[in-house]
């Protein structure tokens, strides 16, 4: 009730929620109370959590912040949602995002932009901007986001909260509306690293419903929490400290490095030589997969169907023209182009090869260090509208997070300091594949 009341007071300003599921939440809270009375308590019993609106929720609208899914009510829960409910979590509602998770500012939502709670004139980051803003504004205890190229870590950094993208395959994608299937992962956004570990414990683990879900058992991530970084070897990739990195973020990350060193970590310069190709590679692979995934929105099976068409082809055309926003259309055009028969080898195949090389860079680097420290975003949160007319500038918001998705690695963004204007700046710790606990360890010790 306290959270619902705070939502009604604060959310009109922040605009993090697309849907508040008040009645359902109160019902779930009552059930949680009953469980607690019976002594049947799990870590999330009664904890109010909100979800990025890209996660299917049974009986509750799941819009992906798109007109094409505005009235879509899934008949099933995503595996992560099922697991949260299984523990007795209370679902407060569905959070705003960039349409189909394409963007870095939440301004691509078809409904309205979300504001950064630290400064309402600034973007909260994206695409999980609603998830970041809701935790920062204390209108959800914790949230889930999705991260294809940085969409959990970048808004976490901009909103001063913790955000983690698990190893690809660690968390089931069943019921996550697909953007780029080989890159997408669901992850927690929380006030601190302990909450992140608790949430990861709840959602991680094998799921037969996702063919890319990994069968290896998960450790107890909460047990990975530690107060010391002593003896830890932290790699500093020199390629992340050149062009494109803003002064304030560079200062913040340098400060973080000094702090870690003071506390006994060993800092080691490393090289990830193919970093400069990551953004270009991503913007071939992600749109290609998106164009294929988004084929299903044809006015037949899901959501919107345009009116006044003459025949089937026109129905497809009108539905997709009216239903998708400009950024989604841009991605579909890029993707269908690079997948077309004459260009497949030159673009998609080449990008897949470069992706392998980028992953190998990381695997080599992890022979020399336990984890890698980098900036999260080049600058603190920018003003609403500032990059809206310049997609390329917007794409560069993710230069430090995209390589991690291409390589399928776990990474966490932890608040580091405030900018001169009082905006949060995060720092990123990247772990080796399936060593998500390393992120929890170093992130937790750092915060
Ligand atoms: N900003 C990137 C994009 O627009 C990443 C988005 C994401 O991680 N979902 O594709």
TrEMBL record:
Instruction: Give the enzyme's main class according to its UniProt record, as a single word.
Output: ligase
Q: Is the keyword Nucleotide-binding assigned to this protein? A: yes
> What Pfam family does this protein match (any one)?
Amidase
Q: How does it assemble?
A: Heterotrimer of A, B and C subunits.
Q: Which organism is it from?
A: Dissulfuribacter thermophilus
Q: Which InterPro entries match?
A: Amidase, Amidase_CS, Amidase_dom, AS_sf, GatA
The protein depicted here goes by the name Glutamyl-tRNA(Gln) amidotransferase subunit A
Q: Which GO terms describe its molecular function?
A: ATP binding; glutaminyl-tRNA synthase (glutamine-hydrolyzing) activity; transferase activity
């Amino acid at each position: 009730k306290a959270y619902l009341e705070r939502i009604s007071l604060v959310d009109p300003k922040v605009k993090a929620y697309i849907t508040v599921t008040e009645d359902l939440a109160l019902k779930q809270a009552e059930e949680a109370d009953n469980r607690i009375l019976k002594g049947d308590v799990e870590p999330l019993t009664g904890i109010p959590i909100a979800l990025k609106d890209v996660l299917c929720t049974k009986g509750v609208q799941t819009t992906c912040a798109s007109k094409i899914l505005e009235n879509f009510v899934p008949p099933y829960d995503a595996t992560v949602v099922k697991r949260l409910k299984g523990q007795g979590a209370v679902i407060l509602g569905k959070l705003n995002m960039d349409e189909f998770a394409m963007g870095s500012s939440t301004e691509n939502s078809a409904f309205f932009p979300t504001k950064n709670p630290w400064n309402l004139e600034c973007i909260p980051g994206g695409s999980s901007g609603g998830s970041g803003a809701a935790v920062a504004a204390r209108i959800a205890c914790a949230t889930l986001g999705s991260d294809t190229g940085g969409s959990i870590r970048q808004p976490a950094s901009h909103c001063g909260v913790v955000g983690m993208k698990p190893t690809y395959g660690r968390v089931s994608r069943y019921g996550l509306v697909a953007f780029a299937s080989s890159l997408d992962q669901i992850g927690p956004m929380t006030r601190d690293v302990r909450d992140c570990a608790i949430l990861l414990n709840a959602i991680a683990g094998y799921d037969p419903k996702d063919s890319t879900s990994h069968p290896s058992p998960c450790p107890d991530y909460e047990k990975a929490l530690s107060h010391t970084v002593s003896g830890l070897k932290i790699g500093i990739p020199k390629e992340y400290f050149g062009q494109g990195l803003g002064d304030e973020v560079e200062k913040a990350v340098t400060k973080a490095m000094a702090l870690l060193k003071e506390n006994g970590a060993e800092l080691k310069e490393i090289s990830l030589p193919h970093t400069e190709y990551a953004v270009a590679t991503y913007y071939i692979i992600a749109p290609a997969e998106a164009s294929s995934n988004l084929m299903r929105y044809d006015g037949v099976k899901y959501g919107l169907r345009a009116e006044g068409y003459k025949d089937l082809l026109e129905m497809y055309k009108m539905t997709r023209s009216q239903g998708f926003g400009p950024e989604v259309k841009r991605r579909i055009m890029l993707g269908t182009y690079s997948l077309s028969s004459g260009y497949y080898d030159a673009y998609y195949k080449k990008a897949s090869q470069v992706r392998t090389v980028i992953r190998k860079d990381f695997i080599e680097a992890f022979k020399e260090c336990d984890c890698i420290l980098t900036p999260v975003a080049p600058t603190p949160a920018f003003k609403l509208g500032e990059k809206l007319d310049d997609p390329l500038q917007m794409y560069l918001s993710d230069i430090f997070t995209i390589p991690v998705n291409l390589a399928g690695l776990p990474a966490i963004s932890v608040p580091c300091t405030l900018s001169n204007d009082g905006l949060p700046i995060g720092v990123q710790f990247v772990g080796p594949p399936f060593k998500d606990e390393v992120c929890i360890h170093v992130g937790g010790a750092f915060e």
